[in-house]
């Protein structure tokens, strides 16, 4: 008999009528011959209510007590759902995370799942029950209640689907699927039929709140098909699977993280180990850092900028100020009025011109770009918060995300094509050997013969980034990594890009003409560098990945010249002569960390 997991978010169980509707969906699925596990979130905005109750009691509530409190929201809804199902004449049993045996680590409020025991659920299912699991919670080794972080019920659902070998994990929510961007922010957003794990992982981690990014890590690792669909209708939603909807589209979606904060540590010594000092202090607090930009400085000093979620700003500033003092940094600045706008698409890994198209659209909309970082399948820009919605609209429009891509496949076509290839044995073996939410590495690679070009003292006005990247692309140079960040010296910015070494002279010539045109301070080029890439699943959400990398490289006296991070890859640019030793040190460091 096939098993399905159905997850109902807070909006889908917001009142007793909605709870009955959710219960009906589960009963109907059971009547159709499935075994059904439901995962349910707290009713409506109940978790927010609990959070504000806690803040009335204390400015800094202990994390353990926070989890004790927040887990109660889900306990209310699972009991009510079970009562509703009983009322419909079917059998149901509700279980808390602890009763199911969802073991987590002890990082209260941000716990990670370590193991799930399936015996009790399987027995209850075999006895004809619908099992209703409380989302977003577990227990640690000492039986303390833990929670997985806001939005974590998706992760509970996909994790249960993985360990139970479910046919599909259905995510019932208040939208009828995944859109090209949040339809509440941009009504012209398009409903997509299919999206790949990698694209959804990046979008979710960059602000698409429809899915919890860690749930997609699980789904990708264990090949769980996710069906995101409406609680209020029976229409087909969106399938999140290994394959993309369109093989030819460069961008599949755009995301906005409205509440970001930028921190810049000014004038730190430009020697190996500096980044380690700063980022290990942050990762100790389990804070995810994004958009790391290190500018090449003067007099052996450099400025390091990065972004964190606004809610992590205070804690990050505390962590960073101790590290900055230790390093003898000149100072720390921050801006809490910024937002991050990103575009994501598997196609951009092989197509050129995506970056300058985005920058041109932003310039035409009068949006100033404060920082830029790129990953293999994403480009993010930091903009002032009051320009965030305009920026999102401009990029959505320029990539024509509201229109169907010319070539696209439906889930039915993809499923038919992949049917013969499905290898059940591989999947089962993987389930047995892979740790649940542990970091998974898939490779460490070196790309030699790269060059870096840095343009310094770039005026912080709209349009210059677009002009730069258009000019370099027009000269036929393929740009790989791009970073732009705040320049500590005078509020101007620095832009660095990596290119193939053979194109360095051409790129420098273009850069010099840009220098004249825009009154830049100077242009620097360096050859003989290499990009070292660590690939895997969960690289950004495991906040210690950067620390492991920086420690390994600093230990070999290797200076990190540029870095970018994503859910799928961490790339560092280092001296090419040290690439091999860097690679070896990284392999050893990660082997140690993964043991
Ligand atoms: N790309 C996107 N596609 C669909 N919805 C999105 C997207 N990005 C953000 N959202 C938002 O996610 C919301 C659903 O998530 P959430 O409110 O957490 O639901 P639930 O309570 O069911 O977990 C939608 O109402 C929508 O506004
Ligand atoms: N109730 C928790 C967990 C959750 O995932 O909720 P929802 O499914 O409504 O996003 C929260 O609000 O964070």
Automatic annotation (TrEMBL):
Catalytic activity, reaction form: L-aspartate + ATP = 4-phospho-L-aspartate + ADP
Keywords: Amino-acid biosynthesis, ATP-binding, Kinase, Lysine biosynthesis, Nucleotide-binding, Transferase
One Pfam family per UniProt: AA_kinase
CDD domains: AAK_AKii-LysC-BS, ACT_AK-LysC-DapG-like_2, ACT_AKii-LysC-BS-like_1
The keyword ATP-binding belongs to this UniProt entry's keyword annotation: yes
One of the GO BP terms on file: lysine biosynthetic process via diaminopimelate
A GO term from the CC aspect: cytosol
GO molecular function, one term: ATP binding
Residues covered by the ACT domain: 263-346, 453-537
Superkingdom as given in the UniProt entry: Bacteria
Biological or metabolic pathway of the protein: Amino-acid biosynthesis; L-threonine biosynthesis; L-threonine from L-aspartate: step 1/5; Amino-acid biosynthesis; L-methionine biosynthesis via de novo pathway; L-homoserine from L-aspartate: step 1/3; Amino-acid biosynthesis; L-lysine biosynthesis via DAP pathway; (S)-tetrahydrodipicolinate from L-aspartate: step 1/4
EC number: 2.7.2.4
Family to which this protein belongs: Belongs to the aspartokinase family.
Protein name (Swiss-Prot/TrEMBL): aspartate kinase
Lineage of producing organism: Bacteria, Pseudomonadati, Planctomycetota, Planctomycetia, Pirellulales
